[in-house]
Amino acid sequence: MSWNAYTDSLTGTGKIDKAAIYSVAGDSLWAESGAFQIAPQEITAIAGGYNDPSQLQAHGLHVEGQKYFLLRADERSIYGKQEDTGIVAVKTKQAILIAHYPSGVQAPEATTVVEKLADYLISLGY
């Protein structure tokens, strides 16, 4: 299976302009589309935020050096917003899907796309 097919499917919706898939621990990049450059400390913070969102709540969600206002952080989903763009990160059993949506896309449109892919991967055991 090519993980890039999943990131490409996210960007192919027109709702997501950059996407990546990491291992659930955040220590291994499995796929990336749209030149998404997430720093190691940023993915580590996201991975840790599923169990303890306090650091994200205190310091914000950082991706590609940009700070996003944290909208949601629970054991499955982390959402952030910066002006009219945002980040959607969804955890499955074995992976973390991270997607960026551009200006002109509404947050619910982007979150639905990423959450549905996460549900699909979970149904496959991932």
Automatic annotation (TrEMBL):
Superkingdom of the organism of origin: Eukaryota
Alphabetical keyword list: Actin-binding, Cytoplasm, Cytoskeleton
Compartments it resides in: Cytoplasm, Cytoskeleton
Pfam short name (any one): Profilin
Transmembrane stretches, start-end: none
One BP term from GO: mitotic actomyosin contractile ring assembly
InterPro entries: PFN (IPR048278), PFN_euk (IPR005455), PFN_sf (IPR036140), Profilin_CS (IPR027310)
Ranges in a coiled coil: none
One Gene Ontology CC term in the entry: cell cortex
SMART domains per UniProt: PROF
SUPFAM superfamilies in UniProt: Profilin (actin-binding protein)
Keyword Cytoplasm: yes
Primary site of residence: cytoplasm
GO MF, any single term: actin monomer binding
Gene3D superfamilies registered for this protein in UniProt: Dynein light chain 2a, cytoplasmic
Oligomer and partners: Occurs in many kinds of cells as a complex with monomeric actin in a 1:1 ratio.
Family the UniProt entry places it in: Belongs to the profilin family.
Function description: Binds to actin and affects the structure of the cytoskeleton. At high concentrations, profilin prevents the polymerization of actin, whereas it enhances it at low concentrations.
Full protein name: Profilin
Organism: Australozyma saopauloensis
Lineage, top ranks: Eukaryota, Fungi, Dikarya, Ascomycota, Saccharomycotina
